[in-house]
Amino acid sequence: MLGPGVPWYLAVAAILFATGALGVMLRRSPLIVLLSLELMLNGSNLALVGFSRLFGEADGQVFALAVMAVAAAEVCVGLGLIVAMARRRLPLDVDRFAELRG
Amino acid sequence: MTAGAWACLLSPLVGAGAITAAGTRITRRQAGWIATLSVFVAFAGALVTLITLLGKEAEDRQHLSVAYTWLEAGGFRADASILVDPLSVVMMLVVSGVGGLIVWYSMGYMAGADEERRYFAYMALFVFSMLLLVEAGNLLLLLVGWGLVGLASYLLIGFDHHRPAAIAAAKKAFIVNAFGDAVMALGFFLLISRLGTLDFAPVFEAAGNGALSDTVVTLAALGLLGGAAAKSAQIPLHTWLPDAMEGPTPVSALIHAATMVTAGVYLICRTHPVFEAAPEVQHLAAILGAATLLVAGLVALVQQDIKRVIAYSTMSQIGYMFLGAGVGAYGFAIFHLVTHAFFKALLFLAAGIVIHHLAGEQDIRRMGGLRRFLPRTHLAFGVGTLALIGIPPLAGFWSKDAIVASALATGGTLGILLYVAGIAGAVLTGAYALRLYWIVFQGEPSPLVLEHAAGHGDGHAHGAEDAAGHEAHAHAEGPTSMLLPVGALTVLAAVGGLILIPGLWKPLETWLETAVHPLVEASVAEEWVTSGGAVLAGAVGIWVAWRAVSAGRELVPWPHLRTVLEHKLYFDELYDRLLSRPAQLLAARLRDDVEQPLVQGSLDEIGRGALEAGGGVARAQSGLLRSYAFVVTASVIVLAVVFLVVR
Amino acid sequence: MLTTLLIVLPLASALVVWLAPLSKESTAGLALLAALAEVGLWAGGVINFDFEGGVQYGWTRSWFEDLGISYDVGFYGFSLWLAGLAIVVGAVAIGYGVWVERERARAYYGLMLFLIGSVVGVFASQDLLLFYVFFEAMLIPLYVLVGVWGGPRRVRATLTFVLYTMAGSLLMLASVVAFGIGQGTFSLLDAGQSTNDWVFLGFVVAFAVKSPLLPFHGWLREAYTQAPPEVAAVLSGVVSKTAVFGLIWVVLPHFPEPVDDLRTLLLVLAAATLVYGSLLAFRQPDVRGIVAYSSMGQMGLIMLGVFAVTDVGLDGAVLQSVNHGLVSAAMFLLAGMVERRCGTGDCSALGGMAKGRPILATVVMATGLIVLAVPGSATFAGEFAILSGVFDRGWGYAAVGAGAIVLAAMYGLRLISAILHDARGAAVSGDEPDLRAGELALVLPLLAVLLVLSFWPAAVSGTSFSSGDTATTITGSPG
């Protein structure tokens, strides 16, 4: 078996996830938030695949495939929303959508 | 064996229930007849019981009949039971006999009054309660009867419920009596906690053989005395009785003269073993009696309301009974109770005829010269007055003198003091009784009397009470149903005293002896001395009153003293300041200063606090997705660290 | 089986009444029928009950086996009487609803039946969690009934009632869990004893709110005066008695030591409630206010008997619970009838109603006299037993109780006179009708039962606990 050990994959996954999380928390544009979300998902996908390799089981890869499918669906809906917002000329800023404020 | 006594007890209850259930389906007159008959049936039951007992040996005259267990709680049981013995039979006869006459009289007196049916239901209820009191087979049932007579008294005093004065008087009577009940109940709790029972026999036995400590017996006896003093209007719990005269006159005659108010005397005689085990308390009863008989006699001198004079006289006479029971002359106390029931009921009923005749007027200053218009009533009232003063051979002479002689026979300083009080009381009795009689019946007719005499001559038409106008008013003195009971009572007041002539002829004394054995026995010499003294004292009182009244003067010439007496020695004012107002103030304070601001106000505080707390939480809901995400992430990190570190 | 039937019958009828699309009249009729059937069923249960035989009509099904929780119901002597009280008062309350033709009939009768079913469930529970479930279920219909059909300040009344009872309930839930887990079983019959003061206090506070006892009574005035009269009748007459049941059946047997340790505190609290309620009753401006605070005073008295933990006191407490439930229900209904006639319950505007209304006068007078515990009445018997029971714990409590007899006479007479006596009040026009036959048919059964109990109080007080079980064996209380 070649290449770096599984811990390296996990480290990359953690970095990916953290980058995504920071993006979600810090950016205000919905498009970037969506992008960052995808990063987080992919971080976890990488972790799943890494673990799958570690334990020699296929389960993790199956999960990763499922997550990809969900992520694709999510992007469809999310991009659709963003396009709808742009068409209505609503500001592309998540902080302006605060109707849930208590 | 006890069937007669049960019939005696239950018949008035059935009567009361029947009148209540029938409602307006029966006429007023029928209601009156139901009540009267039910009470006379009770009298028949009492007679049957008397005859049955007469047929037995003296030792065999005590029967306890248990119907069922009334109250059972834990180890404590109280039966619904009646005790038939010489004492209770005498009381049954008096209550149902005099009661029957008075209910019968009411039919004429109340004719045409509003809600007459209710009146008769109450009267029958009262007779039942009083019979329950005297027949009760244990102390708890006695307390029940004790409370129920108070209830009936409340209902009847407040019979004219649209008059605030009547309602206020009724409430006062009930509350003072409730106080007495509560004190008595406390004594009973003590007995239950020590003996586990309220049956007569074990309680008396324990009191007699020293099974109870002195403190316990003394407290129990004080409880009984408290109840007795409240019910019998003895100082210091006497203030309700004069006000109770707001009730219809037959009620005053039955409840507030003949029966209920004398229940305290019965109670002392019935529970005499307890009192004998606590001699201080028994002497206290005698002292209270002496004080009451003097104070009430003095106050009676200046009253201007015909019924109130008789009411104070009742208090005074009950004072004699307490004195007798307090020195242990139980037989004579009961004897005076019996004769007093006769002559005082007579006086009230005769006064009722006067009031009826004058369309409700009760102020003696507006009366006078009635002798000419009410000759028969005059005769009855005269006999009653002389019996009250104690002129031989009328009823009051025998019984009152026997009590005073027993006081003398007790000896010691206490005995002498009680004796002096008794003799002084006789002077007062002579004075106020004659004053009342003279002002009302003798002298020149007052304008009011003349007006009513003319009214009756014309075939009468006046006053609310006369509205019905049936045969009841054929005669100025009232219908037969009023005159016959008065006649019967006149005879009883005249000769009723002959059931016992101290020292010579004593069927009543022997009869009662098996149930209540007296502590003192006056010698014949003491009897003679007392009789002479008492009659002399009565004569002095009569003479003084006659001199004063015939000259148009007041009996108490000193204005300051008169003011004090007219205010009844300021007892009402004292209690008002001391008890009534502080209690009301406390209640109002609790409501305004504790309940409103603290308890009810705390609701608003809680509400406001909840809103503020909610506001704080609401501020955290910024609606900013990014901050939510931040909180979630931060929480996860914290949790992760905690798990990693704690592990 | 009978017990389950007694619980399920009203609950099932509630569902039917609520769902079936019937007219107002048929809904009312159906509800009344169900309530009467429940009374009949209970009466049958009493006849076949062996009062010496411990818990009967039992029925157990496992619920959460791991935790020792089960559906376990059955009746013991005193709980059968309390359930009877709930069933009879509930039926009368539904009758009152029929009489005044409550709006939104399906919801109303459904909730009333649900209330009856859950109260019966409380009295029948032999499992602590089941007890808690019914105890809480009982509140749901109460909130809605007060909040929807109540008087002008009903929202405030509901809110305070919710706040107080929820606070108490949460404490109790904590105690229930702590006790059940600690014992390894929630069965009231199998569980042992606990010495934990805090768990004990959790229960006591919940029951003190429900009764209510002195510092926990803030909800009382608003709830009792703003609820519809028949709901106030159930609330004061029946729901408050669940606290009595809880104390006797949950607390006393399982916390003998804490009870013993804190007895003085509890007795003083009960006595203070008695005096405080009686004094405030004396100064209330309206009829229902008087009844409300007199109710509080009476609950203090009952608690005095419970906390005394003597045979006499406990028997008296049960007797007085039944009496008070009946009489306070009757009084609230009468207050409602008077308010319907005059449009107000303000004492200063009432008065003089006895004249020309003999039936109303008789009924109000009789009920009022039982409220003030006139000697010879059932309430007197209960009061006497309680005070004589508490006497052994200290004569002072009995003396305070005896003082409260006088206070009761004062507010009782004021209540009677305010409605019936003196001159006609401003709100009494003079042509208000006497009690109608329908109204009489509601109050008379309650009065009749009270009269029977007056003649024979031992019927309840002598059968509440099997003669083999005394306060000490039931509660395992030391002394």
General shape of chain B = globular
The total count of helices of chain B amounts to: 25
Q: Point out poorly predicted stretches of chain C.
A: none
Distance between the termini of chain C: 36 Å
Report on the architecture of this protein:
- The complex is a heterotrimer of chains A (102), B (647) and C (479).
- Chain A has three helices and no strands.
- Chain A has a single domain (6-93), classed as Helix Hairpins, CATH 1.10.287.3510.
- Chain A has helices at residues 6-26, 30-55, 59-87.
- Chain A is elongated.
- Chain A is mostly helical and 102 residues long.
- Helices cover 73% and strands 3% of the residues of chain B.
- With 647 residues, chain B is mostly helical.
- The radius of gyration of chain B is 31 Å and the shape is globular.
- Chain C is mainly α and 479 residues long.
- Chain C contains 21 helices and two strands.
- Chain C has helices at 2-19, 24-47, 77-100, 105-124, 128-137, 139-149, 154-183, 197-210, 220-226, 229-239, 241-254, 256-261, 263-282, 287-308, 311-342, 358-371, 378-391, 395-420, 437-455, 458-461, 471-475; strands at residues 56-64, 69-75.
- In chain C, strands 1-2 form a two-stranded antiparallel sheet.
- The radius of gyration of chain C is 21 Å and the shape is globular.
- Chains in contact: A-B, B-C.
- Chains B and C meet through β1, α4, α5, α6 and α24 of B and α7, α13, α15, α16 and α17 of C.
Properties at a glance:
heterotrimer, A: 102 residues, mainly alpha, Helix Hairpins, elongated, C: 479 residues, two-stranded antiparallel ribbon, 21 helices, 72% helix
Protein topology:
The complex is a heterotrimer of chains A (102), B (647) and C (479).
Chain A: H1 6-26, H2 30-55, H3 59-87
Helix pairs in contact in A: 1-2, 2-3
Chain B: H1 3-22, H2 28-54, E1 63-73, E2 76-84, H3 86-109, H4 116-135, H5 139-157, H6 164-195, H7 200-208, H8 214-231, H9 240-243, H10 249-258, H11 263-270, H12 272-277, H13 279-300, H14 306-327, H15 330-357, H16 375-389, H17 395-410, H18 412-441, H19 447-457, H20 480-495, H21 507-513, H22 524-550, H23 559-566, H24 571-620, H25 625-646
Antiparallel strand pairs in B: 1-2
Helix pairs in contact in B: 1-2, 1-4, 2-3, 2-4, 3-4, 3-10, 3-15, 3-20, 4-5, 5-6, 5-10, 6-8, 8-11, 8-13, 10-15, 11-14, 11-15, 13-14, 13-18, 14-15, 14-17, 14-18, 15-16, 15-17, 15-20, 16-18, 16-20, 17-18, 17-22, 18-22
Chain C: H1 2-19, H2 24-47, E1 56-64, E2 69-75, H3 77-100, H4 105-124, H5 128-137, H6 139-149, H7 154-183, H8 197-210, H9 220-226, H10 229-239, H11 241-254, H12 256-261, H13 263-282, H14 287-308, H15 311-342, H16 358-371, H17 378-391, H18 395-420, H19 437-455, H20 458-461, H21 471-475
